[in-house]
Structures are given as structure tokens and as C-alpha cells.
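Complex record, two chains
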Amino acid sequence: MAAIELTGLTKRYGEVVGIEDLTFSVEEGEIFGFLGPNGAGKTTAIRTLLGLLSPTSGTARVLGTDVRDESALVDAKRRIGYLPADLGFDEGATGEQILDLHGVIKGDSRREALLARFDPPIERQVREYSTGNERMLGIVQAFMHDPDLVIMDEPTAGLDPLKQERFHEFLDEERERGTTVFFSSHVLSEVRQVCDRVGILRDGRLAALEDVETLLSRGGKRVRIRVEGSLDPDALALPGAFDTESVGEALAFTYAGEYNVLLSRLTEFDVIDIEIGEPPLEDVFMHYYGEEGEADEGESAARRAEVADA
Amino acid sequence: MLELARFEAERRRKGTAALVVGVSVVAAFFVGLFPSIEGADVDIDAMLEAYPPAMQEAFGIATLSTIEGFLAVELYGFVWLLLLGLYFAYSAAGLIAADVERDRMDLTLSLPVSRSRVLGEKFLTLLVPILALNAVVPVVVYASTAAIDHPIDPVALLTVHALSIPYLLACAGIGLVLSVVLDRADVARRLAIVVVFVLFLVESIAATTEDLEWLGYASPTYYYDPTAILVEGSYDLTGMGVLLAATGVLVLASKLRFERADVGA
């Protein structure tokens, strides 16, 4: 059985499309990344999966339960953890009071273990929390009842790199435990690090459904290089290199070709500085899932959806 | 069950305590005023006769020369009927709308709880201040009237408090409906105050205008009359039934609406 199954899931707000005809499944035990720029409809999709929004058409099943069936979904939620993008904790309550409330309603068998790992100051009121601490409290409540499925909306937003790293390690362990994890992100590097599979959302539609490996090989790397002397842009016009531009004395381009070809060509130069990193998510979209020139249109549609997401 | 209600009530504990203390002080203050009014060298009831009928109706003015009549106007007609009615309508109007607006509802509904349970338990939390007020203030009123040697009839006093519970719940019910219909909490709260106040005015005016008396039936104030209870000793149990039924209808309507609504769309 699929942990999450969307069938033509559509949510419109009047004329504005939030998500349109989403059809895909997330298998049990999988870590699934839901990737897209801000405003693509990720939050709308997640909130529809949780029954907060009712689908305009189509439907979805989470843990085998139709999201339109409230009473069945309430039962299923005992086995679901949720980490929203905007954590709506009662600011006047302490972290402990909040965990107590969640605990009596859904269970808290893993609470202590999680608190040992993520350590928000639970004796303090939430209004005194930093963004990072609030996020930690959110992670603890999302996992503390040992759910089978955890849905997270931009889980690492507001976490410092060290804590992000700790969280990614934790997700790896969750995979070992067999927990299904569905999370949205607009950061490609995060998704590549922890996910098995990725769904890419663009303007409310599913633009691609890929293994992470495939996605990355298509996305290529962003290369930025500075050499002794001047560098002719054409000198690096290798197969798989595109978007070449001069940045001051440096040359930057996106490279999706064979790494060895690039590396052996680079030996011909006296390299002063080089950076090889993830390409911006927008580049991945533009070159692999959209036509040239569609970017502007996409942006305005994304803005429309963002209004709807708010 | 009731975990959400308990959590919310806990969160409101300080507010409830402040409200009870504040209203108790006001009640004792009014009682303390009474001897000087009674002892004044004017026929205050004759002066009241000159008040416009709508005003007499609005605050249930029958007599100010007895402690019952005096408190029926100053404390129960003004503080209980009007101010607390507005307060609980205002509070109820924030119950759902404020949580939705501040993204708290997402997290609450991620718990294995139905929407109707969330709504019901939130509404129940308002019973805490309502019951606390009606438990503490009558004791304060009785003790302070006894202290000035004008002890109020305890049966009438308990009745006026007991029957105010359905009245305040009905006012809260009006707020609750607005809380699920409107997205913005401050709009819902303001509108709740306006609605309850307008109903209060309409009932006052309608009661003194023969052709329009039926208009007053829409107002909760029509069904709860502190003056009749305290001064005449007459209890309107039908009115209480109407208020409870109206509360039930308002809560049910809110539940139906909330169950179908997109949360935070």
C-alpha cells in the first residue's frame, strides 16, 4: 500500500489555481522530497493532504484513508506526524505544556529520546524561543508519537547549518526505522542529501517525478572558475556546459556533462580559484522542465499561487 | 476527552481570575454606594419616572430605592446584561478565527481530533469564566449587602446568577458563529460586539413600541430579566429554555460551518 496516494488532486481558490491535477504516490518507508520554488503550491498540497483544505476535484489517500473522510482521517492522524511551515504554538504556553497536550492526545513514547537529541528549552514559554528552538520543538512533537508517516513543510527553515545536518542524519535513521517521510523544500541540496525520490512542483502542477540521482544528473553543477590570465568563454564550451557568463574576472557556467572531461580540460589552465556547487533550483526548472522564455510567465503564476498560499 | 478544553482553560486562568476579581470589586462598589443613595434627600424613584421609557427598559429600571432594585439596574442591568454579554460574545468570536489566523489551527487539527471536538471544547472553555463569575460574585454581593445591613434575598440572588448562565452562553454563541464565518479575528470580535449591542438596543426600543415588540424576540436580553427576578421575584424559565436552545442552535450551526470550511485558505 502506498503511504500517500494523490489522484488528480486539484485545489482552486476561485479562479486561482493552488494545485492542479496532481497524481503520484509515495511508497511506504520512502523519504520523498516535494520540491518547488516558493508559491508553487507545496503548502496547498500538504494542507489538502491533512484535510485542512477540501479538494476542488480529485482526491488523495494518506495511510489508506481518503482525505475527504474526516472521521477516518482523524483515526489515521494517530499515525501521522506534521510539522507545518509556520509553527502555530501557543506563545504563552511552555514547550513542556505543549508537548503534554500533544502527548495525551496522540501519545509520546519517543518524547524523551527526541528531547535528548533536539533540545528546545521546554521549561520556557514559546514566546521566548528563537526560530531554531521553535523548529526543534516542532520536530519533537511531529515524531514523538512514533508515527508511520511524517509530513513536513520546509522543515529546516530557520535551523542553523549544524542543526540542519543533525536533522538530516536523524531522517536517515528514520528511514532505517521504516518511517515514511514526505517533506517540502525549495533547497535542492537538502533534497538531494536525504531523499529517495523527488516530485517537482511548478505553478501547481507536477513538473517531474524523479529519483534523486536522475534529478541531479540532469541538474548538473554550477561551476565558477578563475584562472591566471584571461579566460575565453569559448575555451570551456564543452558538451553539457551552458549558461556561461563572465563574473568579473571569473567565468561561471552550469555543467551537466562528464566530470572527467571537464577536469581534464581544466588542467590546461593555471586555476587560481574554483567552486563547484549545486545549481540554483530555478536553473533546473528552466532547462529541464520548461521552455525558454516561459520563466517570466512561470514567475507570475508562482506569485499568483503564493497569494493563494498565504 | 476535554484535553483541549483543559489546556485552553489553563491558559486563560489568569484572565479568568482578573475578570472575577474585577467584577467582584465593581459589585462591592455598587453595594457600597447604595446607603448614600437611599439616604439622599430626594425621591429618586420619582426622578426615574421622568426617564425615557426606552432607557428604563434598557437597564430594567423599576426602582432604585431598594437594594434589589438598585443592584438590578446598576450591577445586573449594566454589568451583567450589557458588559459581560459583550465580553463573552467578543471572547467567543476569537475562539476559532484567532487560531486560524495565527496558524495555530493547523497544528491543532494535525492531532487526531475532529473539528467538531475542537469547536466544542473551545466553546466549553468559556464556561470556566462564566461559572467562576456566577460562583464568586453572588457571595461577594451577599456579604457586602449584609455588611451594610441591607441583606439581599439570597434565593433571588442565586436565581439571577443561575439564569444569567444561559444568557451569557447565548451571547457567546453569537460570537462563535462569527468566529467560524469570518477569517479575521479582530473583525469577528468587533462585529460580535456590534451585534450584541444592537440586539440590546433593539430590544430596549422594541419593548416600548407596541407595533415592534416582536423585534425584541431576536435579542437574548428579551429572555433574561434581572429586574423581574430581583424586584418582582418572577422567574422566566421559558426564557431560559429559549436561551439554551438558541445556544445549541448557534453552536450546531458553527459546527456545521467549521466542518466544511477550508482552514486558513
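Note: Chain B touches chain A at residues 3-4, 7, 10-11, 99, 102-115, 259-260, 262-265 (CB under 8 Å).
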